[in-house]
Predict the structure.
Amino acid sequence: MQQVTSTKIPTFKDKPLKKIGVIGAGVMGTGLTSALLETGHQVILIDLSANILEQSINTIRQQLRLAMMEGRLDRKIKLDTLLAQITKSTELDALQEADFVIENICEKWPLKKVIYPKIDDICNQNCVFASNTSAIPITRIAAQTQRPSKVIGIHFMNPVAKKPVVETIRGFHTSDETLQTTKNLLSQLGKSCIVVNDGPGFISNRISHLFMNEAIWVVQDQLASAQAVDDIFTQCYSHKTGPLATADLIGLDTILNTLEVLYQDTLDSKFRPAPLLRKMVDAGLLGRKSGHGFFQY
Ligand code: NAD
């Protein structure tokens, strides 16, 4: 497996400048765009409204500033020069020139399902489509296109810029060439990958969502506070983050959507979302992104 590099300096001159389409400018699309800019790419960033795109650009600006402070990005580079590498749009048509598209829209199958036939018509025939889905099988996504061999799963971890390894999922028809193109892009991002076969939730979320859901059941059953549950994992197991702080970081709505995909796909009751999770999402407690989840931010 390729070695991971933690210091990334954009080298616009000697790196092939690739236009990467990023659909969805939420938590992941925003983090991914920052990571792409840090490594010298151009990004076509798509979301539903100008307002969402504007918020995303503001966050990207903060993330790039942090990258400079943390030494991942050369301080001499002007932020505006980097931000100028983004083409924002609310229209998928803007993806015509993309070499590689990464889809990061909400974890809801009816929403994702309609995107793929559209980009299949819009994008050039060599363009690879990668989904950053948390749980939806890649083979099902690929079946919405006329190019199933060019569809792959790349499950980035959050925050994208700081996580060096990406779970990469081969759908039933994913070709060796598509896998290689994907590895090349990940390598340009300074990341390595672990390649797995397709199945609901792949490896990471099939396991981690059971873990986080059970932690929520424990709080719901009043066996311990959220803090005590997380302390057991950080202090007894030496995990960096407890399951509930992790859920807050991911977004409780995304956790719920992902558990619903796992439950519907497997019909296995072990994936039944804890009612407390549903109640918190209904109440607008989404974790870090709303300022309040199991913990306050
Ligand atoms: P999010 O809710 O923060 O962002 C989703 C974005 O998609 C929103 O800005 C929304 O407006 C946009 N969107 C919805 N429909 C759209 C459409 N038709 N066209 C364009 N944009 C559209 O969600 P997120 O946390 O960024 O998750 C995005 C994807 O990444 C999901 O599939 C999720 O499961 C996956 N994922 C999330 C994490 C995480 O830690 N949050 C980690 C890995 C993978």
Observations:
- Residues 23-29, 46-48, 52, 104-107, 111, 115, 132-134, 155-156, 158, 250-251, 254, 258 surround nicotinamide-adenine-dinucleotide (CB under 6 Å).
